[in-house]
Amino acid sequence: MESVCVTGCFPEAQACARAVATLHKAGCNPLWVFSPFASQEVLEALEVTRSPVRLWVLLGGLFGCAAGFALTIGLSAEYPHVTAGMPIVSIPPFVIIAFELTILCGALSGLLGFLLQARIPRFEAVPGYSLRFSNDRFGVVIHCAAHERARTEAAMYQAGALEVTCEPA
Amino acid sequence: MANEMLGYDDVNRCVLQTLTPPGRGYWLGVGGLGAVVAAGIATWTYQIYTGLGVTGLRQPTMWATYITNFVFWVGIAHSGTLISAILFLFRTRWRTPVYRAAETMTVFAVMTAGLFPLIHLGRSWFFYWLLPYPNERWLQPNFRSPLVWDAFAVGTYFTVSWLFLLMGLIPDVAAARDATAGWRRSFYRLLSLGWQGTDEQWRHFSTAYLLLAGLATPLVISVHSVVSWDFAMAQLPGWHSTIFAPYFVAGAIFSGCALVLTLLIPLRRLMGLESVLTPWHFDNLAKVILLMSLVVSYAYGTEAFMAWYSGNPFERTTFHMRYWGPYGPLFWTMVACNCVIPLLLFSPRIRRSLAALFIISICINIGMWLERLVIIAGSLATNFMPSQWAVYKPTWVEITISVASLAWFLMWFSLFAKFLPIVSMTEVKEGVPWLQQALQEQRKAA
Predict the structure, then answer these.
(1) CA angle B133-B134-B135, nearest 5°?
(2) Domain A3-50+125-168 is of which CATH architecture?
(3) How many domains does chain B have?
(4) Cβ-based burial of B138 (10 A; exposed 0-12, middle 13-18, buried ≥19)
(5) Most C-beta atoms within 10 A of its C-beta, which of B26, B86, B201, B205?
(6) pLDDT band at B93 (very low <50, low <70, confident <90, very high)
(7) What is the ipTM of this complex?
(8) Do residue B208 and residue A113 have CB atoms under 8 angstroms apart?
(9) How far apart are CA B264 and CA B261, in angstroms?
(10) CA dihedral B282, B287, B288, B294 (to 10 degrees)
(11) Residue A39 CB: number of other CB atoms within 10 A?
(12) Interface A-B: count of C-beta contacts within 8 A
């Protein structure tokens, strides 16, 4: 069965969030929403779950912390150089190195998690994308069968879309 | 545009017009900065070839201009993270058009700071001895040394600052990609990683950005604390102090915010950013500077009190010499620049006068550089042995390299400002209602 992507263009975040809720009630589930900035209203309307990037950061940070202590304790034990009468394994100064590595690995892991979860780099255009969506417009894309196109377009206009475009999915 | 209602496309238009191909004046300016950098590289080469004897570093003052520059530039970096990360966590509204420039300043300031330990080393090519690496004798660095902490702290700060800057740039570069053509489009396309602003992308971006801000916040405090421990861990009078970590962090934020003003005021004019950078933003930045000036003044007072109250003759002598000895003129200039002149910012009229703010910010930068010199060189110059006391004077080598470091910083900043969005469009759009309010106030004042 042939399917199409119907894209509605909205002028503001509030209008877009309202449209998402209206379309949802009308039985048209938005495939995705384009927005020129991170709009909490839109994300709430889409009822998105919390991002797993949190876990990436946590695991990266824990790894960094463990690596920091392992590095300092292990290498100090391997090369036991006494300075100023301090113990070879001096935990307080090692906390500083472990802290820095916690931050470093947490940040790097968070970035990696973001890239993988957001599926970027991705250089082919997502269906429905318009240059205005990085400027001043919000886009709601609905994937539907070709015979439902008219109904979906009508629902978009009813939800307040300024214009509606359609392209093959 | 400033007289009309500001829309999302106005924000894009205002910021993207800064990316138009630069003119001859711009290239002459960047070329001039490049020439100063080249002079600095030549001088550094001369220093490496001849030895550190060409500098003014003599016993007992073996740390002076280079380490002062290191601490100064690391400090400068801090306000960028304060504005971009800490104020982000507090949802401070006025930070949105300011933070990208501040964050860019952070990255290039850390890059500049990182050069000075290398220059100061003498044999710069052995810098990696500070890091643990496999070697045939299985020698390892002393992890109890503040210098090793420094290498880890500054290295982490440099990496995380870059990540934070580049990540925040992705949606803005995508907007630039969609509005340009030719090689610029290809360049922005590559840098935007194919960002299209879908809800999924924003969902992960928002979380990652928030968490990076959360990680950068303790990091920034730790880095300057570690830098301050380079001194505080030594037993030298004037250095060995428990207040150094908060004192240095406050000083860092103070000097960094001042440099943000020094950079943003001309940038606003030269790049036509009046619609997004209003006196309201500068007013708020000036309030932060005023607060930090009071904190720094309090720290100067506490230092003096501690030296007196300790009853330690060495500590008292060091501070007496700092105030009334050969470094006295530098100290009192520093007090004037850091404690007295910023008090002018209590006046709302001065906080809204860009010319006054520009002059005050330059005074603060001079004052904060002098503060580091007085602490570092001044304390070493009057150590425990009066027979060793000597006055440090920088040579032309140190002066040339220091000036070149400023040119190096300005050159990278200028290149960034012309080829990448220096104001975050996405965050300014989020704050458009408050920006409208600021513009209305600006019109009323006019």
Answers:
(1) 110
(2) 2-Layer Sandwich (3.30)
(3) 1
(4) exposed
(5) B201
(6) confident
(7) 0.93
(8) yes
(9) 5
(10) 140
(11) 22
(12) 186
Per-residue pLDDT of B27-67, as tens digits, reads: 999 999 999 999 999 999 999 999 999 999 999 999 999 99
Measured between alpha carbons, how far is A156 from A28 in angstroms, rounded to an integer?
A: 9
Helices (H), B51-140: 65-81, 87-89, 99-121
Contact yes or no for A145/A166 (Cβ under 8 A)? no
For residue B249, the one-letter residue type is: V
Task: Determine, yes or no, domain membership for B1.
Answer: no
Burial status of residue A36 (CB atoms within 10 A of its CB: 0-12, 13-18, 19 or more): buried
- Structural domain boundaries enclosing B341: 8-445
Domain extents for chain A? 3-50+125-168, 53-117
Q: Which two tokens stand for residue A34?
A: 């384009």
**CA–CA separation, A46 and A32 (whole Å):** 9
Closest approach of chain A CAs to the CA of B433, in angstroms? 12
Gap between the terminal Cα atoms of chain A: 11
Name the pTM for this structure: 0.92
Q: Residue B2: what pLDDT?
A: 44
A80 contacts: CB under 8 Å, gap ≥ 6: A88
Euclidean distance between CA atoms B176 and B240, whole angstroms: 50
CATH of the domain at B312: 1.20.1630.10
Element (H, E) at B267: helix B244-270
A 103-122 → B contacts, CB under 8 A: 103-104, 106-108, 110-111, 113-115, 117-122
Residue B3 placed within a domain: no
Cβ-count burial B239-261 (b if 16+ within 10 Å, e if not): bbbeebbbbbbbbbbbbbbbbbb
